[in-house]
Design brief:
heterodimer; A: mainly alpha; globular; B: mainly alpha; disordered C terminus
Chain lengths: ~500, ~190
């Protein structure tokens, strides 16, 4: 029957970063009898090699599989942020996991599988690859949230699984409707179909876009799809919370930008809805964080609030918003990872610490207190830290795209954020005579945790003082326009 | 004629789906799902996608439904759910939302125009033989095809990790004294 068999367009070079991480994951899966420290070092090496291979692909705009995989600069940028976050997670886990009796290589295996999925999302050139990447990431994430054998951790994993599955289902529905409207699954193909003169299926496309927005909203914790976030982040082991609240969010935002910035450039009817969701996220995330007494839960709500700030970059023109988004994501990853790594060290159990127990931390552990203070100040958006420039860039991008009202709202809510970040930060420097916290023995900071904290703190200071180091690399508007490649 | 078949099958699909959602007995819900899946397979056949129809019956109506029923049997979930529903108001809201969505999609369908000519798709199917599906899978969709194998691997490894809880290795690191948590279950 077949007259000729067209060979598929297979090129492994653009896939190399993904394949290296996958190979690391396979090694970690098989090596369950090996010392966990050895496996973790192998995992770190695999991640670093993958990051290095991304650097070699820089600027090449390589594609493979007929455009299903695109290793263009935005993809590499998001991929590198994912790698940074994953390496910091592994470094922080080295000393922390033995303390919580989670010292097994299965942790590293699931982490590397999750990173494989994330890189697939970042490199995706069509919606099917994006969806599969998202599912790989989510499945590994559900398992990681449940790894600690406590009731709360199990509840956290179950909630994450149920609500995450609903999110995926809505996303798949949206993809199906989008396919029905445009007849194409590849991002470039959708873009072409939407831009065509005689495009007739706008209502169906909008329905599909809104459903995809809701599906992604579950993954990035946009209000009102955020209800799982505090319980999951609070219940999961702290190192896993670190991973889920930073790296998973980076990958989900990479997917969002790919779809909404890349594939739907002309049809921006989703923008009004996205604006309302971002506004709600800013308000709910920031005000709810204000009343939290538990520091871990506060950081969970802070993750919701930051989704709102990151969402601003999405509302902007992709050419400007993309660069701001990558910068903010990198800053957000470093400062959140730093804060959670310190929390993992000082908490008495996996439930986190009460804000009041932070009192006097500086006099017991000056190094940790200073690192945490730097991270909190950066999360609050104070100069000279990276968080300040991140906020500045996304505000600017959203403002220039004409979203004045929501930019003002974001600026106002970031004042609220100042209160809840600086309250624990100030408590650390108050003398703690007589309180129970004062007698808690100081913890030793292990070498790997020290390196992780060093990376975070130096990173946020460096990015805050010299933001151009990263921002200028991504600031070429042309690279954010999805190259129209014949991919049918 | 084909329009008639489509309407009959569509009614079957929707009825089965409603039974799945509304039935309070898990076995009835599973059987409703069977009706939906089989009717969907028949819809594929009416569209000349014979291979897809067969796969739909074998995989979904066959293998997956057997798994469903096994789990229902093993968990002894055949009795109707009578416990108090703490979020009862959600039912009405969900019905309202579902109706609104269905109405919107119905309106959208009226103005829908085929983005690709139907004849093109029908020719690509080559009478629904497996060859057409296989060739597409291994050329145009070879990356998703391979990525799904990673997804399945993650699912297998993840479920083994969850069921057979790994044991924490002893650590020679000095700062590795375990921290006490009162809430650890079992362990």
């Amino acid at each position: 029957m077949t007259p000729e068999l067209r060979p598929p367009d297979i090129a492994l070079a653009p896939m190399l970063p993904i394949l290296i991480v996958l190979a690391g994951a396979l090694v970690a899966t098989v090596a369950f009898r090996t010392q966990r420290r050895v496996v973790a070092v192998i995992a770190i090496v695999a991640l670093l090699l993958s990051g290095f291979s991304m650097l070699t692909l820089w600027g090449a705009n390589a594609t493979a599989f007929g455009g299903s995989l695109r290793a263009d600069n935005p993809a590499l940028g998001f991929g590198l942020v994912v790698i940074v976050g994953a390496v910091v997670t592994l470094l922080a886990s080295m000393d922390q996991l033995p303390r919580v009796r989670m010292n097994f290589p299965e942790f590293d295996a699931m982490l590397l599988y999750a990173v494989t999925g994330m890189l697939l999302i970042a490199f995706a050139g069509d919606l099917i690859v994006l969806l599969i990447g998202l599912e790989i990431m989510s499945l590994a994430g559900y398992v990681m949230a449940t790894l600690y054998g406590s009731r709360r951790s199990e509840e956290s994993g179950m909630k994450y699984f149920l609500l995450g599955s609903v999110g995926s289902a809505i996303l798949i529905y949206g993809i199906a409707l989008t396919f029905g409207a445009t007849g194409s699954l590849s991002l470039a193909g959708i873009r072409e179909a939407v831009s065509a003169q005689n495009f007739a299926n706008t209502p169906l496309l909008i329905a599909g876009a809104l459903m995809m927005l809701a599906g992604f909203g579950f993954k990035v914790a946009l209000v009102p799809f955020h209800q799982w976030t505090p319980d999951v982040y609070h219940g999961a082991p702290t190192v896993v919370t670190l991973f889920l609240s930073t790296v998973v969010k980076v990958a989900a935002f990479a997917g969002l930008l790919r779809v909404f910035g890349g594939a739907f450039p002309v049809e921006r009817a989703w923008e009004g809805v996205a604006e309302v969701l971002v506004a709600l996220t800013l308000i709910v995330g920031n005000t709810a964080a204000l009343v939290q007494r538990n520091f871990k839960r506060l950081l969970a709500y802070s993750a919701v609030a930051h989704t709102g700030f990151l969402g601003l970059a999405l509302l902007a023109e992709p050419a400007r918003g993309g660069a701001a988004l990558v910068f903010y994501l990198l800053a957000y990853t470093l400062m959140t990872a730093g804060a959670l790594a310190v929390l993992a060290l000082i908490q008495p159990d996996e439930g986190g610490v009460e804000n009041a127990d932070l009192r006097g931390l500086y006099y017991r552990q000056p190094g940790l207190a200073l690192a945490l203070a730097a991270c909190l100040a950066s999360l609050a958006g104070l100069p000279p830290f990276a968080g300040f420039f991140g906020k500045y860039l996304v505000f600017q991008a959203a403002f220039q795209a004409g979203h004045v009202g929501i930019t003002v709202l974001a600026a106002m809510t970031s004042v609220v954020a100042l209160v809840y970040y600086l309250r624990p930060a100030a408590l650390m420097f108050m003398p703690a005579e007589g309180s129970a916290a004062a007698v808690r023995p100081a913890v030793r900071v292990g070498t790997f945790t020290g390196v992780a904290l060093g990376v975070c703190v130096v990173g946020i200071v460096l990015l805050g003082v010299l933001p151009g180091l990263v921002y200028n690399v991504f600031d070429a508007p042309a690279q954010w326009v999805l190259a129209s490649l014949a991919a049918k | 004629m084909s329009a008639f078949f489509f309407v009959v099958l569509a009614v079957l699909i929707i009825t089965g789906a409603l039974v799945t959602v509304i039935a309070s007995n898990a076995v009835h819900a599973a059987l409703g799902l069977v009706a939906t899946l089989v009717a969907l397979a028949m819809t594929y056949v009416t569209l000349d996608a014979h291979f897809l129809g067969a796969v739909q019956v074998i995989v979904y109506a066959g293998a997956i439904m057997v798994l469903f029923l096994f789990v229902i049997m093993l968990l002894d979930a055949t009795r109707p759910v009578t416990a108090h529903n703490p979020v009862g108001f959600v039912n009405e809201l969900a019905a309202l939302g579902g109706a609104a969505l269905a109405g919107a999609l119905g309106l959208i369908a009226l103005g829908w125009r085929d983005p690709r000519p139907l004849a093109e798709g029908a020719a690509a199917l080559r009478n629904g033989t497996p060859g057409a599906v296989g060739e597409t899978l291994l050329t145009r969709f070879v990356l998703p095809f391979e990525a799904v194998s990673v997804l399945l691997l993650v699912a297998v490894v993840g479920s083994i990790v969850l069921v057979k809880r790994p044991v924490s290795q002893p650590s020679a690191v000095p700062e590795a004294q375990p921290i006490e948590s009162g809430e650890r279950a079992g362990a």
